[in-house]
Amino acid sequence: MIPSLVGRISPPLACPGTRNLTTPCGWPRHGRAGASRGERGFNLSTISALAPLPPPYPPTVVPYILRLQSTSDFGSEELRAYEIGWRSQWTPTVFTDCVVFSHRYDQLRTFSAATFAPGPSLLDPSYVDIVTPTINGGEMTLNGIELAADWRPISSLRFQLAQTWNEVTQVGAAPVAVSYLTPRYITSLRASWTPRADMSLDLWYRYLSERPSIAASPQYARQAFSALDLRLAWKPRKDLELSLVGQNLNEGACDAYSGIAYPTDFSGTVPTCMPRTVYGQARWEF
Fold first, then answer.
1. What is the 3 state secondary structure string of the chain?
2. Neighbours of 179 (CB within 10 A)
3. In whole angstroms, what is the distance from residue 257 CA to residue 208 CA?
4. Which of 191, 203, 205, 188 is nearest to 154 (CA)?
5. Residue 239, phi then psi, degrees to nearest 5
6. How much is the mean pLDDT over the chain?
7. Per residue in 96-130, pLDDT tens?
8. Is-contact 18 1, C-beta < 8 A?
């Protein structure tokens, strides 16, 4: 058994954690591990939200600026993460990893009702301001299981399979965008083949279950979909790599939004997807 205490301090934030590694049998390639997953949490700062604008509404001919403004007591989001896992090396070419986790999020960022600020905008006098206060009003718990397998039948061929089951519970009264952006099932399959030292072929297939969203934010609804990416790379020299990449080759990401009716709001935003894309890339290392 190898217990340890780990932590990270980045003023004014502190991220303590504990870890424990146990080898229950004589074969050192089997072990149990428990660790904090705080660094694998959601990047909530990249998630946007639409706040309803109550009457009186500004005239539609008046251009406006939507301004997010934190309150004086707006603080850091909190996460308590627990996990227990089993990692095994069954043969020299086969690895498996199973993890059960529970993440408790508190003080998540949410938005209060937007308000119309009379008078010209502080940023541009030709506009008016619509102010949306940001507060720490959200909470949720994410429980799940992750299974992963890594197999190398030969030195030039590798397969990586991962399956995740997510369950969001204990969501507070305030809507939290990440609670209905999390798919219940995620499947990922990667295959890498290196037929020669200067050539490689990578394939990535993934499947995400449907996202029903909630009544307060129907624009986040999405059907289940699959996506397929492919990359062929060639290195004519050690410092030069040329590659051809195909993304969303089956256009599954766009099929996820077909047949779903989205209401319009004052922003006029609609969900978009990445169509089938093929491009070339050159990378020079020096």
1. CEEEEEEEEECCEEEEEEEEEECCCCCCCEEEEECCCHHHCCCHHHCCCCCCCCCCCCCCCCCEEEEEEECCCCCCCEEEEEEEEEEEEEECCEEEEEEEEEEEEEEEEEECCCEEEEEECCCCCCCEEEEEEEEEEEEEEEEEEEEEEEEEEECCEEEEEEEEEEEEECCCCCCCHHHHCCCCEEEEEEEEEEEECCEEEEEEEEEECCECCECCEHHHCECCEEEEEEEEEEEEECCEEEEEEEECCCCHHHHCCCCCCCCCCCCCCCCCCCCCEEEEEEEECC
2. 23
3. 13
4. 191
5. -100, 5
6. 77
7. 999 999 999 988 888 777 777 777 887 788 888 88
8. no
Residue listed under structure tokens 């998540």: 108
Q: Which residue has the tokens 């169509």?
A: 275
Asked if the model's pLDDT at residue 44 lies above 60, the reply is no
Q: Say if pTM beats, i.e. exceeds, 0.85.
A: no
What's the pLDDT at 179? 75
Compute the distance between CA of residue 168 and CA of residue 148 in angstroms, rounded to an integer.
Answer: 21
Query: What backbone phi and psi angles, to 5 degrees, belong to 220?
Result: -95, 5
The model's confidence at residue 133, banded by pLDDT at 50, 70 and 90, is: confident
Structure token pair of residue 95: 């690895």
Contact indicator for 133, 111 with CB cutoff of 8 Å:
yes
List pLDDT tens digits, range 45-84.
Answer: 433 444 445 555 555 656 777 777 777 788 888 899 999 9
CA 96 to CA 86: how far, in whole Å?
Answer: 8
What integer pLDDT is reported at residue 104 of this predicted model? 92
